[in-house]
Amino acid sequence: xxxPYSTFLIGSPASPPDVAVLATVLVTLVIAAVLLxxxxxxxxxxxxxxxxxxxxxxxxxxxxxxxxxxxxxxxxWLYGRGPN
Length: 84
Known about the structure:
With 84 residues, the chain is an all-alpha fold. 71% of the residues lie in helices and 0% in strands. It has one domain (5-80). It is elongated. It starts with a helix and ends with a helix.
């Protein structure tokens, strides 16, 4: 079947996504955001409780945790936690 070039650029006149699909995507994004903020909070609480950290000061590790997202939290849990 041959489609005109303009239809290819703007898409076919298909029906919009189903409401159930949009609701599932929205719920998934909300759950992911809540889990991300909970893990950031848990990592920052652990950082606050520790007297010393490895590889830098606490301000450095707090920025790694906040800006690094899940990768930054993983680095903190693997390399930044000092003896307690």
